[in-house]
Amino acid sequence: MLNGGSSSGKSGIARCLQAILPDPWLVIGVDTLIRAMPVSSRRSVVGIEFASDGAVIVGAQFRALEAAWIEGVAAMAHAGARVIVDEVFLGGAASQQRWQQALGPLPVLWVGVRCESAVAAGREIARGDRVIGQAASQADMVHQGVVYDLQVDTTRTEALACARAVAARAQAAVV
Amino acid sequence: MLNGGSSSGKSGIARCLQAILPDPWLVIGVDTLIRAMPVSSRRSVVGIEFASDGAVIVGAQFRALEAAWIEGVAAMAHAGARVIVDEVFLGGAASQQRWQQALGPLPVLWVGVRCESAVAAGREIARGDRVIGQAASQADMVHQGVVYDLQVDTTRTEALACARAVAARAQAAVV
Amino acid sequence: MLNGGSSSGKSGIARCLQAILPDPWLVIGVDTLIRAMPVSSRRSVVGIEFASDGAVIVGAQFRALEAAWIEGVAAMAHAGARVIVDEVFLGGAASQQRWQQALGPLPVLWVGVRCESAVAAGREIARGDRVIGQAASQADMVHQGVVYDLQVDTTRTEALACARAVAARAQAAVV
Amino acid sequence: MLNGGSSSGKSGIARCLQAILPDPWLVIGVDTLIRAMPVSSRRSVVGIEFASDGAVIVGAQFRALEAAWIEGVAAMAHAGARVIVDEVFLGGAASQQRWQQALGPLPVLWVGVRCESAVAAGREIARGDRVIGQAASQADMVHQGVVYDLQVDTTRTEALACARAVAARAQAAVV
User: Fold this and answer.
1) Residue D45: strand pairing partners
2) Largest alpha-carbon pair distance within chain C?
3) Which of the residue ranges A37-46, C99-108, D30-39 has the most confident prediction, judged by mean pLDDT?
4) Chains within contact range of chain D (3+ C-beta pairs < 8 Å)
5) pTM (two decimals)
């Protein structure tokens, strides 16, 4: 479970994990969910709103679909799939609890993906396809009250090196 | 459940359904799964191979991940999400049975999306991002032995009109 | 030169032309220009605005860059490249004149790509990534006062068949 | 003119330049050209071949279209557009000469975008959509014999900081 703010580098770490781990792993994340939802315009999906300052306002409809989605991702893991979840815990500790409840006794490595707010904001500009402001507004918020097995920081460490740290820890946990 | 060959028009119908149905529906399909899988090169994903004539060769690793994936999508529906599945039953009747087993007693509308092979092959060229040959090779194969509640044909009917027929049937089924 | 409203099917015809013409042709269009421009947010590019009803408001900055862009595309053709331009003449006849001036004595086949407004609007919904309303608002507007060598209509004719008509006419013109 | 190997960070710098420069600048690059070319399959474009080790083999057809393309981009600049070219000089000094000839007396800031080969190779894995091996094979090759006004190195410097250095130098050059 990779949790971090927008433009913190989670997806890059996830793809590196897919490349270096010996078994095939699925990468599923909040972006997968958003792509699956109805689009009422180029910018807004049902029950979620991207304010112009980068804040994300989540409504009841999104929460309901997200809850079913979490159940589904947990069921994939229960059914034997190896899953890397690429997530943004907008609710901090409350988000973690939602996942813990769904995942139950499954072995999970909780990984915090950190990136200094100013650096993440710069990378958001460099990506060119993001609402400016999300990186800064989420950088700390998504980690509040969350308990991790491991934290990595992409500010000065490459995604591949972060992925190697996560893989080493995951394999140690299995043994 | 929308089943049809590549370039038969399933995804267009799915997006129209999202636009016209009163509640929010998720669209999840085999493309979502393929995007979640490790990419060993720009062209191949783990356990699946796209032959140059458009044939798709599915290996054991893909089958195993797909089985867990189907469990997960079924679990989303069990947890209350309304889901439009955008699928390609490469195994025909056997694929349908895999889904039936996972979905259990959930209400499902089985929809066959047909398109004349030559027309689908032309649309494949017009899309410009597909392996040429898939549309023709899948046009009939994916429907072999599959039992439907409704079939639509995009050869001469627009996606929106097909979606209206599906929505009407779905709402009749609920009542 | 393919001119037509949003969701009229120009890009599909352009890709089919690339597939069936014996020589390699470049496809360049207004989408290429928009992708090259600075993005001030996920939705707006410099000097162009997409109103919520699908209208496109073009400002002076966009016009200036577009003028230089047209010169550049014309220069590619002058330098020997075969170019399919995939365009939306928001200014109708005035847009055509801008291109005529830049292209000078170069041989051009002017092709109008028509699609009934209601059908284009339905395809816009099926695409799922367009601002709803553009197809309807542009369907007739972009053809006002424009003079064509050939017109095709995608309402009931597939992109590949339209492309074949265009290719036949282009080759007849060369001979 | 930004020249660097695949995954060296050129595109990120280009988008940051668009964000920080006071006037609107177009970003045009080899990716724009490749997207404009006919696709014979999902992987190969006319006259260019991506070997499985990341080498890029460029044929005569690609060279001819590229020459016309360079003329066109130069014409855009001559016509007044501010253009950031995001390029990969596969031919090193010979590529630079092709551009110099087309650009003539126009003011150009030649910028080399460097990235240590191993770091670029890691970022290539993290991107997930590139042919593995290009980053390493191009890291040094594209700079051979090329003369720069400025070089930046993304190995340990963020794209935004590199863009600021380029912008400062560009504005100094204007004065």
Assistant:
1) D39, D48
2) 48
3) C99-108
4) A, B, C
5) 0.93
Strand segments, DSSP code E, in D88-132 are 111-114
Structure tokens at A168: 């080493």
| Three-class HEC string of chain C | CEECCCCCCHHHHHHHHHHHCCCCCEEEEHHHHHHHCCECCCCCECCEEECCCCCEEECHHHHHHHHHHHHHHHHHHHCCCCEEEEECCCCCHHHHHHHHHHHCCCCCCCEEEECCHHHHHHHHHHHCCCCCCHHHHHCCHHHCCCCCCEEEECCCCCHHHHHHHHHHHHHHHHC
- DSSP class of residue B143 equals G
Residue of A nearest to B85 (CA): A36
Q: Which active-site residues of A does the annotation give? A: 31
Give residue-wise pLDDT tens across range A71-81: 999 999 999 99
Structure tokens at B57: 């060769």
A85 CB-contact burial (10 Å; exposed 0-12 / middle 13-18 / buried 19+): buried
The answer to whether the CB atoms of B42 and D128 lie below 8 A apart is no
Contact C114, C143 (CB under 8 A): yes
> How far apart, in whole angstroms, are the C-alpha atoms of residue A160 and residue A175?
23
Identify the pLDDT of residue B41: 45
- Inter-chain contact C52–A41, Cβ cutoff 8 Å? yes
ipTM of the complex: 0.91
Picking from A13, A15, A119, the nearest residue to D158 by CB comes out as A119
pLDDT digits (tens, 9 = 90+) for B42-81: 455 666 777 777 777 778 888 999 999 999 999 999 999 9
Give me the total of CB pairs closer than 8 Å, taking one residue from chain A and one from chain D.
57
CB-CB: which of C15, C119, C126 is closest to B128? C15
**C36·D46 Cβ contact <8 A:** no
Q: What is the pLDDT of residue C42?
A: 40
Strands A2-3 and A56-58: unpaired
Cα distances (Å, whole numbers) of residue B25 to A112, B72, C32, C115, C132: 31, 16, 32, 29, 19
- Asked if B121 and B8 touch (Cβ cutoff 8 Å), the reply is no
The residues, any chain, with a CB within 8 Å of residue B97's CB and separated by 6 or more, are: none
CA B25 to chain centre: 15
Contact A12 D127 (CB under 8 A): yes
- Closest alpha carbon to C127 in A42, D148, D134: A42
- Inter-chain contact C76–D67, Cβ cutoff 8 Å? no
B31 is catalytic: yes
pLDDT tens, residue order, chain B (175 aa): 999 999 999 999 999 999 999 999 999 999 999 999 998 644 556 667 777 777 777 788 889 999 999 999 999 999 999 999 999 999 999 999 999 999 999 999 999 999 999 999 999 999 988 888 999 999 999 999 999 999 999 999 999 999 999 999 998 876 5
Which are the contacts of B75, defined by CB distance < 8 A and separation ≥ 6?
A: A71, A72, A74, A75, A76
pLDDT band at D62 (very low <50, low <70, confident <90, very high): confident
Cβ–Cβ below 8 Å for D125 and A160: yes
D16 min Cα distance to partner chain A (Å): 5
Residues in a beta bridge with A112: A3, A151
Interface test with D, best of A116, A152, A158 (most D CBs within 10 A): A158
Among chain D, residues having any CB pair with chain A shorter than 8 Å are: 11-13, 15-16, 18-19, 119, 122-123, 125-128, 156, 158-161
H/E stretch holding D84: strand D83-87
Q: What are phi and psi of A67, to 5 degrees?
A: -60, -45
